[in-house]
Amino acid sequence: MNNTAASPMSTVATSSSGRATGKSTSFTLELQSMMFSLGDARRPLHETAVLVEDIVHTQLINLLQQAAEVSQLRGARVISAEDLLFLMRKDKKKLKRLLKYMFFRDYKSKIVKGIEEDDLLEDKFSNSSNVNKRQKIAQDFLHSIDQTGELLAMFEDDEIDDVKQERMERAERQTRMMDTAQYAEFCESRQLSFSKKASKFRDWLDCSSMEIKPNVIAMEILAYLAYETVAQLVDLALLVRQDMAPKAGDPFSHAISATFIQYHASSESTAACGIEAQSDAIQPSHIREAIRRYGHKIGPVSPFTSAYRRNGMTFLAC
Amino acid sequence: MPYDSYLHMSSNQETFASHLDPSKESSTDVSSVDLSFLPDELNQENTEQTLTEGKQGVERNHEIQGDPSRLQSVSEKNSNGICTDNFNLSNSGSNPLPTENSTLPSPENSSSSFFPLTSMTPLMPVTPVSESSGIVPQLQNIVSTVNLACKLDLKKIALHAKNAEYNPKRFAAVIMRIREPRTTALIFSSGKMVCTGAKSEELSRLAARKFARVVQKLGFPARFLDFKIQNMVGSCDVRFPIRLESLVLTHQQFSSYEPELFPGLIYRMVKPRIVLLIFVSGKVVLTGAKERSEIYEAFENIYPILKSFKKA
């Protein structure tokens, strides 16, 4: 077993010291906006954003390296969607979410094309097999690696994604109280993504110095995974924060669903005191605790059960 | 005037009822035709929604909102073919109603369909109907196809026609544009043609004919076969901001909203089969229609829903 079992926190430490050698691109501001749209306070803390950026960066770099290894195994010259899908094969829920995202991308381009006359012509120019391109890639690949039929069964499966559901409910609750101006700001924050800043994203990941580079669709997926990592961190940090809040009396409070408690807690606190915006924001300590719990090995066999843990990095996104 | 139509309806209840529910035997028991052909939820759902717009405020709507499964089943019933709100009375061929009804927007038609078929009660509606939204979607783009029914020499066309582009290495069709109506055509060597950019069905047909004439003048025996509208796009503005987060939560079966990818919510309406793009600002784009009525119908369907998610 790999001894350099670097926990995410220590790798965070090393990367931040390495970063002192002048990393020009920083997503801190965008991250603050993103965290707001995912459930954090209106002005997320700068330190939290810096920490989140560090974590996401480290995890993505590691993911890229593993993808490059898989790619080499295949004998391919670029990192493509298949390699990333391969890395995600273990976690069906997350894989399903990624697939849904890819299909939605296809669907959206199909619709928007039908609307814009110019786009229609553009599409005719380019290869018309672009329709449902991502869906085809995903389906073909999963078909090829699926031994037991579980992966392909996912396409038919129509279960509700709990995590996504919770996020939607949280967003709905957040927006209920907003006035028009705040809501407009919120909507703009929600539209931020890593894929919108593709070149900055590439620089941030230092793709140019890699031997095997990711192709366009792989970059799309990486941008999505980066966003998912931020979202997961916020989800977990909110849970941790709620855990930390002292609740008098009720012995079963920890068993009630997280979103339910959050709602009631926040409505009480806003009623009780004038809101101290700072205390509403996610603190770096929440994030650290969330990572610690996520990476925590439980049980005697767990060190041997996951390939990623062997490498010492538990990915939040896959 | 409504008087005539109601009288007609009462006397033709059987045919009327069987039009609405083709699966039922036409009942001879006239007195029992008391809207039972309408599934209860559907009946209530629609009248209640229309009621609250007028009267009780949004409480009921929250109730309705709070039960997504119920909404789902309503919409599923909608898709089964019996959709009272949108039953276009002018659709059925042997409809006994006078054709004037076909010019009224659908919700008013539906109010007449709820009304007492069993007796000649006062013809003023007892339940106030929501005014139709008062907004008419504007058509923005029509895509149509036509078959000129002869093989075409694209190079010759490109050389002799004005405003024609032909780049065989990029794409195997001639792109021709005319200014009135402002449209673009893709002309293929098989004789098939696609016409885009017109703002109405008639204009699209007119433009297609003009393109066909150009081809004719160049010496090809072009005809004008199987003209068909393939897609219509409309847009309008409800003029109030909409809370997309709640809309996507309540109508999960039909909506997808990923603001990182696209700022609008994509709503796939089942009946009629139209895709709507709904934006926070209140702008709505409707696409996927083969007929103008589908766009209007879809908008009238979505309007009360959007109103209930209005950002206060």
Automatic annotation (TrEMBL), chain A:
<dbReference type="GO" id="GO:0005634">
    <property type="term" value="C:nucleus"/>
</dbReference>
<dbReference type="GO" id="GO:0006366">
    <property type="term" value="P:transcription by RNA polymerase II"/>
</dbReference>
<dbReference type="GO" id="GO:0006357">
    <property type="term" value="P:regulation of transcription by RNA polymerase II"/>
</dbReference>
<comment type="similarity">
    <text>Belongs to the SPT3 family.</text>
</comment>
<dbReference type="Pfam" id="PF02269">
    <property type="entry name" value="TFIID-18kDa"/>
</dbReference>
<dbReference type="InterPro" id="IPR009072">
    <property type="entry name" value="Histone-fold"/>
</dbReference>
<keyword id="KW-0804">Transcription</keyword>
<dbReference type="GO" id="GO:0000124">
    <property type="term" value="C:SAGA complex"/>
</dbReference>
<protein>
    <submittedName>
        <fullName>SPT3 homolog, SAGA and STAGA complex component</fullName>
    </submittedName>
</protein>
<dbReference type="GO" id="GO:0003713">
    <property type="term" value="F:transcription coactivator activity"/>
</dbReference>
<feature type="region of interest" description="Disordered">
    <location>
        <begin position="1"/>
        <end position="22"/>
    </location>
</feature>
<keyword id="KW-0805">Transcription regulation</keyword>
<dbReference type="InterPro" id="IPR003195">
    <property type="entry name" value="TFIID_TAF13"/>
</dbReference>
<dbReference type="GO" id="GO:0046982">
    <property type="term" value="F:protein heterodimerization activity"/>
</dbReference>
<keyword id="KW-0010">Activator</keyword>
<keyword id="KW-0539">Nucleus</keyword>
UniProtKB/TrEMBL annotation, chain B:
<dbReference type="GO" id="GO:0006352">
    <property type="term" value="P:DNA-templated transcription initiation"/>
</dbReference>
<dbReference type="GO" id="GO:0005634">
    <property type="term" value="C:nucleus"/>
</dbReference>
<feature type="compositionally biased region" description="Polar residues">
    <location>
        <begin position="44"/>
        <end position="53"/>
    </location>
</feature>
<dbReference type="InterPro" id="IPR012295">
    <property type="entry name" value="TBP_dom_sf"/>
</dbReference>
<feature type="compositionally biased region" description="Low complexity">
    <location>
        <begin position="100"/>
        <end position="116"/>
    </location>
</feature>
<keyword id="KW-0539">Nucleus</keyword>
<dbReference type="GO" id="GO:0005737">
    <property type="term" value="C:cytoplasm"/>
</dbReference>
<dbReference type="InterPro" id="IPR033710">
    <property type="entry name" value="TBP_eukaryotic"/>
</dbReference>
<protein>
    <submittedName>
        <fullName>TATA-box binding protein like 2</fullName>
    </submittedName>
</protein>
<dbReference type="GO" id="GO:0003677">
    <property type="term" value="F:DNA binding"/>
</dbReference>
<feature type="compositionally biased region" description="Basic and acidic residues">
    <location>
        <begin position="56"/>
        <end position="65"/>
    </location>
</feature>
<keyword id="KW-0238">DNA-binding</keyword>
<dbReference type="InterPro" id="IPR030491">
    <property type="entry name" value="TBP_CS"/>
</dbReference>
<feature type="region of interest" description="Disordered">
    <location>
        <begin position="16"/>
        <end position="116"/>
    </location>
</feature>
<keyword id="KW-0804">Transcription</keyword>
<dbReference type="InterPro" id="IPR000814">
    <property type="entry name" value="TBP"/>
</dbReference>
<dbReference type="Pfam" id="PF00352">
    <property type="entry name" value="TBP"/>
</dbReference>
<comment type="similarity">
    <text>Belongs to the TBP family.</text>
</comment>
<feature type="compositionally biased region" description="Polar residues">
    <location>
        <begin position="70"/>
        <end position="99"/>
    </location>
</feature>
